[in-house]
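Can you give me the bound-state structure? Components:
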Amino acid sequence: MLFSTIAFALLFDALVWATPVLWEGRAPYNYTKADIDESIGPYFSAVKGTHNASNYFQFLGHALLTTPIWPVPEQAIRTVIDNSSIFTPGSSAPQLGFRRSEIIAQPSESGNRTAFDAILESGVTAFHFSLKTDKALPLNYSHEYQGVWIEPNDGSHIFDLQITSKLVRTPATHVLGIRAHNGTVLFQTPFHSTEWHNFAVVVDWDNLTLKVFYSLGARPLKAVTNVEENSSAVKGPNGQGEFHFGVLKLPLVDPSETPAEQADVVHFGIQEGSCEALIYSGIFVESTQDGISIGYGNTMSV
Ligand SMILES: *[C@@H]1O[C@H](CO)[C@@H](O)[C@H](O)[C@H]1NC(C)=O
Ligand SMILES: *[C@@H]1O[C@H](CO)[C@@H](O)[C@H](O)[C@H]1NC(C)=O
Ligand SMILES: *[C@@H]1O[C@H](CO)[C@@H](O)[C@H](O)[C@H]1NC(C)=O
Ligand SMILES: *[C@@H]1O[C@H](CO)[C@@H](O)[C@H](O)[C@H]1NC(C)=O
Ligand SMILES: *[C@@H]1O[C@H](CO)[C@@H](O)[C@H](O)[C@H]1NC(C)=O
Ligand SMILES: *[C@@H]1O[C@H](CO)[C@@H](O)[C@H](O)[C@H]1NC(C)=O
Ligand SMILES: *[C@@H]1O[C@H](CO)[C@@H](O)[C@H](O)[C@H]1NC(C)=O
Ligand SMILES: CC(=O)N[C@H]1CO[C@H](CO)[C@@H](O)[C@@H]1O
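Here's the bound-state model for the whole set.
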């Protein structure tokens, strides 16, 4: 009994610390509605509409199984948009073209995110995330969505997860794509309606490269690209930024607007105002100094 407890503790330690984890975003069961309203702990919840954060970010407790690949107890997180999901950054104009609800990684409620991002975004690090559809609140595939990205101050994305149905074969499949800094799609896979889709994007912050790992459902992660050049990204602090996950819904072009308005997707365009969601789990960032975690306590060299 004692032996197995110690063995388990050692095993658990080894699993958790193997690589090591730099930011733990797998939500513990004690994380509550009141916590997200106050942006407590690992989640900064300011990118949202005017209602309380818990209106847009729901911690699902034992109601839904999380991705099976990580032996870590966690709750799934539902990120929801509705017609109130209009973000107004600081003193700027409301972003009427978008509907968005995003959680941003932070060290703690009182931590310095800029200094923290420099830790997550130095050397070679892996950004892990798993997502699935919400049957009750489906996306509208007439639109394009973005689900995960790292955004430096220039507004670019070091990489992002794009959700679309534009580039597909028949029968109509919705696709998850990982795009590089210059928008090139490095990897695409169908977005199935019931399963977890597990990703890790390895960023080499010095050599400016990306490598994508992916698996469906309960399978361990596998490399799905080579090391890809990403040299349009900037080295150093100007190339570091916040790690976002959630739902960002882009507008459709409104033919009644002027060409300049049509080009300004942040502020113009068509939104139906529907209520839609994505569900996340398995969100964390790790150093790859001892390899990348691929699931079930195993690692692989990058
Ligand atoms: C959850 O419990 C852990 C362990 O007791 C504690 O460190 C952490 O602060 C708690 N988190 C929240 C959000 O209450
Ligand atoms: C938002 O949270 C505050 C503090 O918990 C509460 O007083 C208020 O009623 C909430 N508003 C809504 C719209 O739920
Ligand atoms: C959605 O919100 C916008 C901006 O506030 C508003 O103009 C529009 O009428 C709303 N749409 C619906 C369907 O409520
Ligand atoms: C946060 O960290 C950055 C980078 O290390 C630093 O420049 C900035 O002054 C810090 N901000 C605060 C409020 O301490
Ligand atoms: C999806 O968006 C299109 C284009 O705006 C709209 O015609 C359609 O009604 C929307 N579907 C749903 C289910 O909201
Ligand atoms: C973006 O990257 C891809 C792949 O490396 C390359 O083929 C393409 O020319 C690049 N596009 C721009 C605009 O830099
Ligand atoms: C990064 O670049 C350095 C120097 O150019 C090289 O020695 C190193 O092998 C590269 N690392 C990777 C992971 O490609
Ligand atoms: C994969 C990728 O995005 N590669 C691009 C990185 O940026 C440089 C410079 O803009 C491009 O030349 C690469 O094609």
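A couple of observations. The chain has a mean pLDDT of 92. DSSP finds four helices and 18 strands in the chain.
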